[in-house]
Amino acid sequence: MKICVLAGDGIGPEITKQAVRVLDALNLGIQFSEAQVGGAAYRAAGHPLPPATLNLAKNSDAILFGAVGDFSLDKLPRELRPEQAILGLRKELNLFANFRPAIVYPELVHASTLKADVVASLDILIVRELTGDIYFGKPRGIHTLPNGEREGFDTMRYSESEIRRVAHVAFQAARKRGKRLCSVDKANVLDTMQLWREVVVQVAVDYPDVELSHQYVDNAAMQLLKNPKQFDVIVTGNMFGDILSDEASMLTGSIGMLPSASLNEHNFGLYEPIHGSAPDIAGKGVANPLATILSAAMMLRYTFADVASADKIDDAVKRVLAQGYRTADIAEPGATLVGTAQMGDAVLAALA
Ligand code: NAD
For the chain, which domains are there? Predict the structure, then answer.
């Protein structure tokens, strides 16, 4: 297993370090390589995703990504800003399927802004298409109308093959979980989404053991708050998935706990916490490394199909939470407050 570690900016190096310690402790013979990305790469090499970093990523089996983002570089032209690195990696590596689990751990149920009985034991997975839709569709732009007024426009587009491949990924994920898949679209208004629904229904024929349902995105946004436990796996397009996955992550109330995976058709993946570089706490040793550690578990599960090792990490995280260890972002009164490295130590101890 060759893992490329792209730590990035802010808390990125602190949190990836703990995830690497955890992967190392499993003695799986992993080879780690590191490269700079984001603001750190811009400062060192003049580009947020230098060719050397991209090559290293392409020649690895999976990427462990920290976070990118540096407010002091926000005035750079868009293509040189740190955040472009993650977009560039998605595009170059064809990472079209984004997996975002939203899990509520019993110990953290009160971190959610929703009532405990609504979110207790929540365990859902959102599969978001990541490389198509209105974010990439052409034509797009801002032009001036004959009356002198400016008009902005973007194009929502999906080909059948783009819909089909993400639908297959989602059905396969549902098959490994509760065998229920809800496809979210806006087929009542948008032609692109009508095609989305037709293709998902065609793909469903290959998965008779998975129960397929459909919801319009406006209803899905409401249902996620009203009764999120009705869902097992949700599959949706890029824009709707962007919004719904952030909504779902907040059901758990704890940004420092949520991992993600972005996969291509060969199960090559980029694994990262959903949060950013948290410049406000960078270098203080207080960041929560658990989202990154859980991302490493997703890597073992999805890219390396090592379910046993992935389960070991997930169980170790559950154990440290049950033991009362908390970083500041998830701490409640009476908890044992720990820093980034101590949380890593606790997970290693729980693994052992
Ligand atoms: P953020 O996610 O970095 O931080 C939001 C808040 O959550 C902050 O108060 C931060 O301290 C806290 N937080 C985040 N992760 C935490 C952790 N592991 N432990 C404890 N607390 C944590 O979002 P932001 O402040 O809006 O953005 C900061 C930078 O990150 C920006 O430059 C943004 O563009 C970038 N960003 C990058 C990614 C990515 O790399 N994939 C994702 C989102 C934002």
Answer: 1-96+264-352 (3.40.718.10), 101-257 (3.40.718.10)
pLDDT in tens, 216-240: 999 999 999 999 999 999 999 999 9
Q: Over 90: is that where the pLDDT of 137 sits?
A: yes
pLDDT (tens digit per residue) in 97-130: 999 999 999 989 988 889 999 999 999 999 999 9
CA distance 305 to 210: 21
Mutate to test the pocket of ligand 1, among 49, 75, 249, 255 (most ligand atoms within 8 A of CB): 255
- Residue with the nearest Cα to atom 4 of ligand 1? 278
For 338, the 3-state DSSP assignment is coil
Question: What is the residue whose two structure tokens read 């400062």?
Answer: 43
For residue 282 and ligand 1, the question of a CB distance below 6 A is answered with no
Q: Is 345 a catalytic residue?
A: no
For 250, counting Cβ atoms within 10 Å of its Cβ (0-12 exposed, 13-18 middle, 19+ buried), the class is middle
- Look at residue 78 and tell me whether its pLDDT is greater than 90: no
With beta carbons less than 8 A apart as the criterion, state whether 107 and 269 touch.
Answer: no
Q: Which of 24, 74, 246, 311 is catalytic?
A: 246
DSSP letter at 159 equals -
- Return the best residue to mutate from 255, 275, 338 for the ligand 1 pocket (most ligand atoms within 8 A of CB): 275
Asked if 209 is an active-site residue, the reply is: no
| 123-129: strand order across its sheet | 31-34, 2-8, 62-67, 269-273, 259-263, 97-103, 123-129, 233-236, 180-185, 211-216
The pTM for the full model equals: 0.92
278: Cβ below 6 Å to ligand 1? yes
Omega before 139 within 30 of 0, i.e. cis: yes
